[in-house]
Amino acid sequence: xxIEADRDILLKSISIVDSIIPSRTVxxxxxxxxxxxxKDKIQISATxxxxxxxxxxxxxxxxxxxxxxxxTRLVSLLKEMPAGLISININDSYQIDINTKSSDVKGDFxxxxxxxxxFPEIPDFYEQGAVEIDQGDLKDMIRKxxxxxxxxxxxxxxxGVFFVSQSRENLTLVATDSRRLSIITRNLKNEIDLDEGIxxxxxxxxxxxxLLESDGTCSFSMQGNQCFFKIGGTxxxxxxxxxxxxxxxxxxxxxxxxxxxxxRGKFMETLRRALIFTRMPANTVICHFKKDLLTIEVKTSxxxxxxxxxxxxxxxxxxxxxxxxxxxxFDSIKEMDSETVNIGLTGQMSPVKFTPDNDPDFIxxxxxxxxxxxx
Length: 375
What we know:
By secondary structure, this protein is α+β, with helices and mostly antiparallel strands. It has helices spanning 7-18, 71-79, 135-145, 202-211, 264-275, 326-334, and strands at 2-6, 33-37, 41-47, 51-58, 60-61, 65-69, 85-90, 95-100, 109-112, 114-115, 131-134, 160-164, 170-176, 180-187, 198-201, 217-223, 226-231, 234-239, 258-263, 284-290, 293-300, 304-314, 320-325, 340-345, 352-356, 362-366. α1 packs antiparallel against α2 (71-79), α3 packs across α4 (202-211) and α5 runs antiparallel to α6.
C-alpha cells in the first residue's frame, strides 16, 4: 500500500516524537516509532516506557495500516531529500520504500519495519479537569528553574521539577539539588488544583520545554501517577516521581538584614572571568559585600588569583564575606530578565537570596560555602 505526505511536515512530526527514544534500549520495538495510518492522517508515536509522545499530520493513504520503523534513520533519510511530496510504500513483510516525487533524486530507498501490533499503548490526553496554560509562560517558567534540578539519581525527588498551586489561581514551579533552589510563580487565566503538587522527571520537563511554543495555549491534566499535556496536534504523557518534595519554603529566607543591588550584566561578566580561576565542582568564589561595593575574589594555589570590584547599591553597615559557587551564581543570574539583581543577605552561613528587580515572584537561593579565615 502507498502513503503520501509532505516531506517537511513528516520530517517535523517524526522529529517531535523520536527525540525521547534512548540511544540504547533492550526492547527492540521501543527503538522504533509507531505509525498508525488512516486514509487522511498519520499518527506517529514513541515511548521510553516513562514518557509517551504522539502527534498527527495530514496524509493520504490507500488504506489503514499500523507499522513501526526506526525514526532516527527515517529522519536522516528525509533530511537528504528535497521538499515536496514523499511516497511511502509498504509491503506485507513491512519493507518500507521511501521515494521523493521530485525528479532531482532518482533512487530506491528501503527501510525494514515491523507490524505495529506489539507496540506499547500510549494513553490519550485525559480531558477531565484539564487546565489551559499559556505556552510561552510555561516555557519561560521551566527555563528559569530547570537548571537548579539535580542530575544524579541518589534522591529521586531532586531529579525533577515540582509543579504546585499555592492557590487555585496560580502555578508555582520549583527545582532544587539541595545546594541551590529556584522558584517561580505565575497567575493563571483559570483555576488549577495542584495543592499537593507533583514532581515531573527532569527528562520529561526537558522534552516538554522543547515542545512548547512561544505563542498559543496548551492543556494540562492529571490522572493517577500520570500527567498529560496537549500542545496543538501533539500529546505528551509522563509518569510523575512518587516521592514527597522537600519543604522548599523553609529554605527561602523570609527576611534579610542586608539588601544589595547590582548590575546583572556586570555581575555576569565578572563571574565569567572569575570562573577561569576556580576549581570544579565547588567553583568557590568569595563575595565581599561592602558599602556600595561588591568584590569577587578567587585564590587558587595551582591556577592563580582574581580580584574584581563591581559597583553596588546597599544598606550594609558592616562588611561581610560569603563563599559561593560561582557556577551556581552565573546559572541563576543568567535566567533573570532584568537590568539589575537584588541580593538579600542574613549572615555568612545563611542562604543568599537573588531576585530580578522587575520580578519578585522569581527567586533563586544559593547555599553558602564555608571558607577558611585566611581566605
